[in-house]
Amino acid sequence: MAGTILKAKNFNAFFGQNQVLKNINLDIMRNDVVAVMGPSGCGKTTFIRCINRMHELTPDATAEGEILVDDKNVYKMNLIVLRRKIGMVFQRPNPFPTMSIYQNAIAGYLLNGIKLTKSKKDEVVETSLKRVALWDEVKDSLHKKGTFLSGGQQQRLCIARAISLNPEILLLDEPTSALDPISTSKIEELIYELKKNYTIIIVTHNMQQAGRISDKTAFFYLGEVLEYNVTKEIFTNPKHEKTQNYITGHFG
Amino acid sequence: MTINRSYRKIKLQYIGRKEIRRINFTEASFKKMLLLSAIGLVVVLLAIFVTLLISSLPSIKAIGVGFIYGKTWDPVVDHYGGLPFLIGTLLTALLALIISIPFSLAVGLFLGEYFRSGVISGIFKNIIELLAAIPSVIYGFWGLFVLVPLVRSLETTLGVPPYGVGIFTSSIILAIMIIPYSVSLTAQVISLVPANLKEAAYSLGATRFEVIKNIILPYTRSGIFAGILLGLGRALGETMAVTMLIGNSHIIPTSIFSPGNTMASVIANEFTEATGDIYLSALIEMGLFLFVVTTIINVIGRRVIKRFSIN
Fold it and tell me: How far is B203 from chain A (nearest CA, A)?
């Protein structure tokens, strides 16, 4: 199923009076990996938090314009349906400390009060942990607390938790910034695998990472999208001077 | 290199050996002072225990272990059994906890999750602190003039003897008195739940109620229990308000509407009229008994908190 899965139209976001996203227009194709880059404070994280409407959890945060997922405006969708459709992984690994690895993997079902039979639960846990290549490492300790795992394993558990609900889009907010290089490369391999089933939008500060894993890159600067293009193009032939300066390390 | 070395020399000379010795002395004596204060507290605790023990020796000798399970308390014939008061204490405290828990949990969630900052939460927090600052004799008075008639009419409706005073009335007052303590702790632990855990739950499509039920409450259960324990400690020992409202009966309570007595209220009530040596000593033994009961409950509570805590 090719085609546009996400479309931002004249989208603006605010924290109180402070405008953090200015007139964003962006089309994201199904099964693409899109890297969102830019200097700190340019609105990258705010942008992806607007897609699943986590932005509005902050007091005073407001938004204008449209973000369409499958041609439906997310601001008119039921919040619960929307968030089941769009998974999110955060900067710091945050498995639920009161839950076991097993419970973390099906936390989406537990939290939403969706009843599953024992065999269905086992199946969901196994497939989602296998998809994040964690199954072999934890299959003998499924009932231990998720917080006993290493940072990289915790982050993969969080990805498993996000994909267990079978979302269409996966939002990753600097998922490797708190991890060591080995765990980082594992997550990157994982993203490459996940791309077959999901559309992935990843915020990253790491230029090499964006180059390695993304199909397209959006360069944000002061709340605007300065450039959005195929990653290779952006890195080899940036149209904008600011983009050029950023990727060559002159600021940011 | 030379410049560097001479610079270091100057700095060392500038501080001076004597100066260093003086600093070390200050540091060491400050630490000793802190240690001394800490030891002082332990000594006071032990001294209270030992004094209570010595003063209750006559009664311990005369009555023996019967003091704990004896059902009658009759100073006229020097017969002292503390069971009615032990039951009265535990019953009022537990009932007070049961009444207070839903309220302290609700207010704790309100202040710790829904209104963490701002004018509304400020007003509520101040009022709750004020509630804790009211002297217990005022609670007793209020209970006597407002609560007792209300309970009496409730008792009439229910068809039980309408004393008005009794276990139930004392428990309500105790519940009101302990709510501020458990609320402040509950609100604090709830407000400390990491935002990233709540966000993770929201991102999975959980509603606010589901986040509270599945993330916040499991995460804070040991803190919430600590708040309840803080309230329990206060409820066990509260004297004035309970003495005014419990009805001061020496009979083992048969229902929650019966009048009764707690260990603290019997001491307060009878201390001034305790004429005989054994009578006085028995009241002191009651104090020792209360001391021990509170300690045991606290130790058990701490165990539970530890088991409840996450890591």
Answer: 6
Q: What is the mean pLDDT of chain A?
A: 90
Q: Are A151 and A143 in contact (CB under 8 A)?
A: no
Find where tokens 């990289």 sit.
A152
Name which of B189, B198, B203 to mutate to probe chain A: the one with the most chain A Cβ atoms within 10 A of its Cβ: B203
Asked if pLDDT for residue A184 goes beyond 50, the answer is yes
Per-residue confidence (pLDDT) for residue A147, from 0 to 100: 87
- Specify whether B243 is located in the same domain as B113: yes
- Reported pTM: 0.83
Which of A57, A98, A112 minimises the CB distance to B310?
A: A98
Cβ contact B174:B101 at 8 Å = no
| Residue where the block lists tokens 């005369």 | B62
Q: Which domain holds residue A130?
A: 4-247
B185/B217 same-domain check: yes
A58: domain CATH number is: 3.40.50.300
Give the torsion through C-alpha atoms of A244, A49, A67, A4, to 10 deg.
60
Same domain, B53 and B75: no
* Same-domain pairing of B197 and B292: yes
| pLDDT number for residue A247 | 81
Same domain, B14 and B90: no
Instruction: Collect all residues of chain B within an 8 Å Cβ-Cβ radius of residue A96.
Output: 197, 200-201, 215
**Record: contact B200-A87, CB cut-off 8 A:** no
Would you state the pLDDT for residue B310? 67
State the Cα–Cα distance between residues A132 and A159, nearest whole angstrom: 7
* Digit-coded pLDDT (tens) for B159-218: 988 999 999 999 999 999 999 999 999 999 999 999 999 999 999 999 999 999 999 999
The parts of chain B modelled with pLDDT lower than 50 are: 1
DSSP designation for A176? T
pLDDT tops 70 at residue A251: no
Q: Which domain holds residue B150?
A: 66-308
Whole-number Cα distances in Å, A60 to A14, B28, B199: 8, 51, 17
Q: Could you give the 3-state DSSP secondary structure of residue B155?
A: helix
- CATH assignment at residue B211: 1.10.3720.10
- Cβ contact B235:B119 at 8 Å: no
The domain total for chain A is 1
Residues in chain B with CB shorter than 8 Å from the CB of A147 are 310-311
pLDDT in tens, A127-169: 999 988 899 999 899 999 988 899 999 999 999 999 999 999 9
Q: Total domain count for chain B?
A: 2
